[in-house]
């Protein structure tokens, strides 16, 4: 490992655009990690960075040993041609070895390695050792929960999932529409439908059965990237007023968020065992999307989702992962639909403040390049007419500039201190496990 330490990359030139090489597992296959990285890519490009992305997999390309080897050759060839870079962003822990080599070929000073949740537990021992030993590699993750899980390999700045500006505008537009309350309340849960077991669908339906017995009819919609497996259809068929929506388009999903009384995410948290993969919510961006559309939320009892909403203000959290604990939360929230609607409006206000694109751009550039985004052109100021007294300014004093956010925290929000704690269900690039 000493050879890695002898290379001295050149100091960055502050007058040129940041140059970034992005290595990812996939492009065009969908999933929360891909969406997260696509939003990061869009943000870097919008901020003036020169970026080249290299994907291992794409539609029609399977994860075979031969395709992995071809990716390594292609990534290193791209790194040689790329020239001097400011950073090589390693989009998954499995790509740490090729990322370390690309850092040397590009003479980059910065090698952030992105982590999301269960990949922390399943990281290979050799990759963990290389991450600890290489002075240019360092972890970056999506929530304070996952940052804590990474504490044995280093201090990980937090770069939460972002919402693309167009998708954010669509969701906020839905939240501004005032709709009358329908006679039957609606609950919504959004996740990749193949992951229904780890996302707690059975526990949610068990809790809802008790709620229906006490409060009357409640409609439940389970939506996400399909197709839905037969086991989920079988489970849903045993419960009234429950439907599955497979792969809704953006417009339909935005309406589902906005017309629901309550959004619920019940992800289970457990380490991998024989016959059962690891499960956990690194962040839960669907919680943020629901709030932007004006919907109150219930988050998982464990995991990193506490960063994605304000517990007690824009949503609530069960005390544990049991159906009884979830029932207690749902009972209190659904019993007063007018209060629930007010919570939804507060959720939209908070989410709007927490997802401002300029704040996110600062976080992305700080965490992944160590450099600021390209400054935007200042507006032209009006010229003061001749003869006007100097005491009569032609425009009001501008508000003080918003302080730059640290990459180790989520943007602050009204009424809440810095949060203490991609998963996503859709393959679109609008927002990121």
Concise summary:
This protein has 433 residues and is an alpha/beta fold. It has helices spanning 2-6, 32-46, 65-82, 96-106, 118-121, 125-133, 144-149, 165-175, 201-215, 230-237, 250-259, 285-292, 323-334, 337-354, 357-368; strands spanning 19-26, 50-57, 87-90, 111-115, 137-141, 186-190, 219-224, 242-246, 262-264, 296-298, 315-316.
Description:
- Pfam families: Glyco_trans_1_4.
- InterPro entries: Glycosyltransferase_grp1 (IPR050194).
- The protein is of the alpha/beta class.
- It has two domains: 148 residues, Glycogen Phosphorylase B (Rossmann fold, 3-Layer(aba) Sandwich), CATH 3.40.50; 187 residues, Rossmann fold (3-Layer(aba) Sandwich), CATH 3.40.50.2000.
- It contains 15 helices and eleven strands.
- The strands form three sheets. Strands 8-7-6-9-10-11 form a six-stranded parallel β-sheet, with helices on both faces.
Note the main attributes of this structure.
433 residues, alpha/beta, Rossmann fold, 2 domains, six-stranded parallel sheet, three-stranded parallel sheet, 15 helices, globular, disordered N terminus, disordered C terminus
Stated plainly, the CATH topology of the largest domain is called Rossmann fold
Instruction: Name the helicity range.
Output: 25-40%
- Overall CATH class of the largest domain: Alpha Beta
Structural class: alpha/beta
**C-alpha-based Rg, rounded:** 23 Å
What count of helical segments does DSSP give? 15
> How are the strands of the largest sheet arranged?
8-7-6-9-10-11
Summed up, the domain count is: 2
- The CATH architecture designation of the largest domain is 3-Layer(aba) Sandwich
- Beta content comes to 5-15%
Mean of residue pLDDT? 85
* Count of individual beta strands: 11
The general outline is globular
Largest sheet: 6 strands, parallel
Could you name the ranges where pLDDT drops below 50 across 5 or more consecutive residues? 1-8, 378-424, 426-433
Helix-strand sequence: HEHEHEHEHHEHHEHEHEHEHEEHHH
- CATH-assigned homologous superfamily of the largest domain: Glycogen Phosphorylase B
- Distance, first to last CA: 32 Å
